[in-house]
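JOB MANIFEST
job_type = single_chain_structure
chain_count = 1
residues = 192
[input]
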Amino acid sequence: MAPKEYLRILRQAGKLKQVPRHCWTDEDRRESVADHSWRTALMAMMLRGVEEFRDTDMDKVIRMCLIHDLGESFTGDIPTFEKTGSDTSTEDRLFAEWTASFPEDMRTDWQDLLAEMNAQETKEAKTYKALDKLEALISHNESDLSTWLPLEYDLQYTYGQENMKYSAFMQELRQEVDAWTYEKTGRKQGEE
């Protein structure tokens, strides 16, 4: 790949640093999509030491985490409670159009990763998706309650529950996140 092409790809991906997400950081700043993608990838890297994931290709999961929201560099972020199937299709289409101009090996890798992520059949894809959901919950718990919309009090307990079922570790991690949410909101378990 020529340096000019390398920089062209990085400049588009770098737009995620400026794309705000719905969530606020604990520093009273809007979280960016890049913030979210980075920590999701870090979460994947940290799973290398967890016995349940010894047979999981964590390098692949990390790559999935890093590219999963690149379509949003074209569309911006749409909160999960507003996002439609059409929005997701648009992001995927723009990602495919963008990567069509990549060098062949990189294009194939990124497009294959997206297809695997969307199919949600492999342990790697399921792990990426669970981490994506968990990172959003963690970020939300880090934000001040004054930034939460009324619907988010319930959503915080239901969001991504299905994505945790494949893994005992993910279910335990989700329980810890939920306990943090109960503490933060002052609710008791069963009130959600």
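[summary]
The chain has a mean pLDDT of 93.
The two ends are 52 Å apart (CA to CA).
exit_status = 0
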